[in-house]
């Protein structure tokens, strides 16, 4: 367990004892006093109890009522425990939590229960009512829990009168506090929990106030909007064992006085905007078991100094997203109680010491996102109990991705029997022969049951062994993309029937696609793109009824699209581009594919016409039929593509097969702005039609101008004739327009200059005539956009017209933008923001 609470453990035992009273009443047949009975009945009458939880509250002996405990000698009520028995994180939370909430008012009759020591109203819904002031008069109260109960307003300072109170929990409400001075009266307090209480207005020396509470053992002030953390000259709360001040905004140095709290067991100061050096004295705290300083960004320390000694009892050490630097010393092997070691996203350099083998209790080991170099230790220092059989019998998560590790994978990686996630991506591992060493031998990959395997973007070579399923039958996520793997993919891959993602893209695989992949019935994403697969697509892939993303592009596949694909009704992406497919585009593609966003058949040998049924693909955002042998007019029904009409699209990441933090992220390459651009993060905002490089003829359909949400339109290198429609100005989102190398004639419509998002225009090599309306957006384009039209004249061509050219107007911003910033402009301006945003960053541009 990561969270250790000494006093909380004692409370748990006490609560268990109290629960015996709650569920079964007192073991002795003690009768409560008439005075207490009347007070409880009045209290009940103020409550709303939709599930009749208080049905036992009848009769004259309230000591037998559910949730009530009495003193066995006097009969006085000492306990009221009405917390919701189905907390939000329970299995039944969706169905029972809301129904079992008590609500209503808390009547002042409670203050008549003068012997009351324990009051728990947590996890109910006393919506928008303040904490009753009269609770401050319950002088014998030792335990008060009002957490997650819907209270609002200011915490009454009268609670400071509860001098016997040992535990106070007012977390997870809608409360605020202006001053901590009232806490001075809680001289017996041991446990204080105020998570998510607004403390933004408390005095800057609030820590000094708490320092006056001598017996304080636990302090929980997470998410409290605290903005200061002053120093304390003399420590009084020497019993403090648990401190949670996470998710505040201190903007201050890490407090040195923490190192003087020798009773500390648990410290969480994560995400609190702390800076400066981490005190080395923390490692000398004799009882410290949990330390979380993650996500502060600016805490620094030398690993050599911080970890060289001490940390005798540390179990959880989370220092992710800071500025730790230097090498991990071999002394880390002395932290033999460690279960979690997380230094993600720091500046750690050097290698991983072999002494980590002594950390036999590790569950989570994360050094990803650093600057580690060298190879993983070939052998480990291990404890005598485990030897070399399995150095980390409890390890479930091993994250070493995004470093500069190289060399071969050591044998011990294949012996991690409980491993769930192995992250090695974005390193420089090399010389791995998967055909003979995938599971065993000198360079094995995991030879035990795991669920996630991501080795993408390394330099692995070799082929996949035929016995891949001998040890990986439970695999859910498999990514080997971006390596140098070769050979045939074994048919045994279909034995991993739990797979949701298979990504083998960007390798050198040859041969046929294994028909057995059709057995992976849970598959959501299959990416075999950019390899050397050949032959026909196996019809068995049509059995993958949950498949959402299919990429087979950039291979040497041939034949026709299998008719079994008509069963893939969940498809959102079908990418078959750059192969040798032939025949006509099948009619059945127009039936049942209501979720299809991307359809790419480019650079094949399809013949016939563009089918009119494409308009039935109501979710289609990207249509790429370029570079085929299509011979027809452009169907007017393309103007009915619903997802290319309308503005104000909302960006959403297209993620498939999400499992335990890993997922397949959709991406697609589009021919736009005279080159190929890869879209990932903003792909959902893109709308594109590319019919270039075919034998299309006839006139440009007027109906296409209804696509006012279309961003990219490419009809180049066809035989399209007639005039450019004056209504093209209705296509307000156009950012890239290519009509080059066709037979368009007549004048360039002046309305084209009003397309304010147009960043690329190519009308070259047509039969256009007249003066170029060189104004507005058109004034940003060069001669090349209009070349090869002998009848055109005026700027920017060097051919003067017989009459004066129109006013050039104001030059607008350069159109030489990257693909995603171009999408950003279209998106943000379309929802009314009056300037272009460039916040999503550059997507990869393909040469």
The beta-strand count equals 57
Main β-sheet description? 27 strands, mixed
Helix content: under 10%
CATH class of the domain at 572-830: Alpha Beta
**Could you give me the name of the CATH homologous superfamily of the domain at 572-830?**
Ribonuclease Inhibitor
What is the third-level CATH name, the topology of the domain at 572-830?
Leucine-rich repeat, LRR (right-handed beta-alpha superhelix)
Helix and strand content put the structural class at mainly beta
Q: Rounded to an integer, what's the Rg over CA atoms?
A: 35 Å
Number of helices: 7
What amount of the residues lies in strands? Answer: 15-25%
- Average pLDDT taken over every residue: 85
Give the termini separation. 51 Å
CATH architecture of the domain at 572-830: Alpha-Beta Horseshoe
As residue ranges, the low-confidence spans are 1-28, 89-95, 431-445, 804-847
Question: Outline, from the CA principal axes?
Answer: globular
Subcellular location: Cell membrane
Domain Disease resistance R13L4/SHOC-2-like LRR: 109-296
Domain Leucine-rich repeat-containing N-terminal plant-type: 36-71
Protein name: Leucine-rich repeat-containing N-terminal plant-type domain-containing protein
Core attributes:
single chain; about 850 residues; mainly beta; 27-stranded mixed β-sheet; disordered N terminus; disordered C terminus
Write the layout of secondary structure elements.
Elements: H1 6-24, H2 34-45, E1 47-48, E2 68-70, E3 77-81, H3 93-97, E4 103-104, E5 118-120, E6 143-145, E7 152-154, E8 167-169, E9 174-176, E10 191-193, H4 206-210, E11 218-220, E12 242-244, E13 252-253, E14 266-268, E15 274-277, E16 290-292, E17 298-302, H5 303-306, E18 316-318, E19 323-327, E20 340-342, E21 347-350, E22 364-366, E23 371-374, E24 397-399, E25 404-407, E26 421-423, E27 428-433, H6 434-437, E28 452-454, E29 459-462, E30 477-479, E31 484-488, E32 501-503, E33 508-511, E34 525-527, E35 532-535, E36 549-551, E37 556-559, E38 573-575, E39 580-584, E40 598-600, E41 605-608, E42 622-624, E43 629-630, E44 655-659, E45 662-665, E46 668-672, E47 675-679, E48 688-690, E49 697-699, E50 712-714, E51 719-722, E52 736-738, E53 743-746, E54 760-762, E55 767-771, E56 791-793, H7 819-830, E57 845-846
Parallel strand pairs: 3-5, 5-6, 6-8, 7-9, 8-10, 10-11, 11-12, 12-14, 13-15, 14-16, 15-17, 16-18, 17-19, 18-20, 19-21, 20-22, 21-23, 22-24, 23-25, 24-26, 25-27, 26-28, 27-29, 28-30, 29-31, 30-32, 31-33, 32-34, 33-35, 34-36, 35-37, 36-38, 37-39, 38-40, 39-41, 40-42, 41-43, 42-48, 48-50, 49-51, ...
Antiparallel strand pairs: 1-4, 2-3, 44-45, 46-47, 47-57
InterPro entries: Leu-rich_rpt (IPR001611), Leu-rich_rpt_typical-subtyp (IPR003591), LRR_dom_sf (IPR032675), LRR_N_plant-typ (IPR013210), LRR_R13L4/SHOC2-like (IPR055414), RLP23-like (IPR046956)
Domain Disease resistance R13L4/SHOC-2-like LRR: 109-296
Protein name: Leucine-rich repeat-containing N-terminal plant-type domain-containing protein
